[in-house]
Each structure stands twice: as C-alpha cells, then as structure tokens.
Amino acid sequence: MIRAWFARNGERLVVWVVALLVVLASVGLFLVQPYPVDERAVDAVRETPALTVEQTDTGYTVHPSDGESTDGLVFYPGALVPTRAYVPLAGAIANETGLAVFLVDVPLNLAVLDVDAADSVFAGEREVDRWYVGGHSLGGAMACRYAEGAADRLDGLVLVGAYCDVDVRDTDLDVLTVVGTRDDIVNRNALAASRDLVPDDAEFVDVEGANHTQVGVYSGQVDRPGTIASTEARQRIAEAVSSWLDDSTGDLTTNATVSRSAV
C-alpha cells in the first residue's frame, strides 16, 4: 500500500520537499543577514593620515601610521555585525594606545562559529610582544572562551558591551569590561554575575550615555538611544582601554579620563 502511494504521489512529494527546503533556506538566510554598515564612517578612518587600515586574509588591521606596534589586540565582532563596522573603534583604540588592533572575520558574522579565530592572527604576527583579545557583545563572550584555553599566551582580555560566561578567575589575565549606561542589549544580571568569573582585580567601567550599538558603525539593532554622540562613545571606550593598559603595564602613555564604577 505504501509503495503504491509513493508511486502515485512520489513526484508531488519531491516537489513539496524541495519547496520546503527552499523556504527553510530562505528563512535561514534571513535570520543571518548582517546589519548594515555605515561605510562613510569606515572610509573616514581609512583616510586618516595618522592611522593605517589594512584588509587582510583574517579581517582588518588598524594601527598607528608612525611606527611598528609592539602590542596587539585581537577583537571579535558582535553577532551579525560585519567586521569592518569596528574599524572606527579600532582606530580610536590604536590612536589612543598605540596598539595594533586586529579585527577578525568569522563565519556568517557569528563569532560562536569560530572561537579560535585569534589563532590565525597569532600565526602571522611574530613581532608582537604582548597580546590581548577582546570583543563586542557575543564576540566578547567568545573572546573570553578563547582566553580560557589560551591564557598562557595572552596578557589581557577586553570586553565591550559583553561579559564572560566561562571561569577565568584562576588565570593571570588582566580583564577590562566596558559597558555603556544606555546599553539595553547586554544582560545586566549576567553582567553582574560575571564578576565571579574573572580575577578579583578585573576592572569594570561604565561609559555614561553610551549604548550598545555605538560600539560599531552599524544600524538595525533595537537599543536605547545614546545620550552622547557615537564618536564620543567610541573615544571614551578607547580612553578606558588606554587607562587600563597603563595600569596593567605601567609603560603606555595615555590621556584617559574615564573613571571606574561598579556594575
């Protein structure tokens, strides 16, 4: 009976299965559509004489134009945010700290699909003395997961609008968490709980008036409006990183003014 049914309806069934697969594929593509990027903001950094922006096999590298950087920060993007959306933040950090910032590409713009993306950067950069990893949102959480298994090769961890979801308390990592006070996307309860997952001397910094999406130059994510300009938000993040690095290493020049505050 079943064989007879398939004989009569097999062709129709194939059509329906193919149609269903097409629909599922279309839904999947819709769900992983990246957020639009403000290309003008990216181009503005490219045209800044003090900074060099290079597109590489691993993503983008941003560093000061006036010399070789001896310290590097590998930065993971937030979920569905194209890597280049962080070029302006990388520029602000590089300008403020002298770091070379390596923005890593990840499959489908989802860092969870390539937690070890930093490895490809390390393999090609042998002149860097100190390494830091970090990221925004989901990218920050994945950077923490990477750091959990690679703490011996790292000096620190930089989380922006993000928090650790794995335990790195017993590492020697210096940890910085920077969150905007208008960030309506980060889970505040999880952020508070993450204090128990990082070393006791980890620093938490609030950027007054900044929201979640101002970290990058992209649109389409529902967030509370920031009460400061996006360029100012990124500059304050860069100043927080600079001040933290100065505290951690004792030999980086900074002019940061961002103060520490509790989450």
UniProtKB/TrEMBL annotation:
<keyword id="KW-0812">Transmembrane</keyword>
<dbReference type="InterPro" id="IPR029059">
    <property type="entry name" value="AB_hydrolase_5"/>
</dbReference>
<dbReference type="InterPro" id="IPR029058">
    <property type="entry name" value="AB_hydrolase_fold"/>
</dbReference>
<keyword id="KW-0378">Hydrolase</keyword>
<keyword id="KW-0472">Membrane</keyword>
<protein>
    <submittedName>
        <fullName>Alpha/beta hydrolase</fullName>
    </submittedName>
</protein>
<keyword id="KW-1133">Transmembrane helix</keyword>
<dbReference type="GO" id="GO:0016787">
    <property type="term" value="F:hydrolase activity"/>
</dbReference>
<dbReference type="Pfam" id="PF12695">
    <property type="entry name" value="Abhydrolase_5"/>
</dbReference>
<feature type="domain" description="Alpha/beta hydrolase fold-5">
    <location>
        <begin position="72"/>
        <end position="232"/>
    </location>
</feature>
<feature type="transmembrane region" description="Helical">
    <location>
        <begin position="12"/>
        <end position="32"/>
    </location>
</feature>
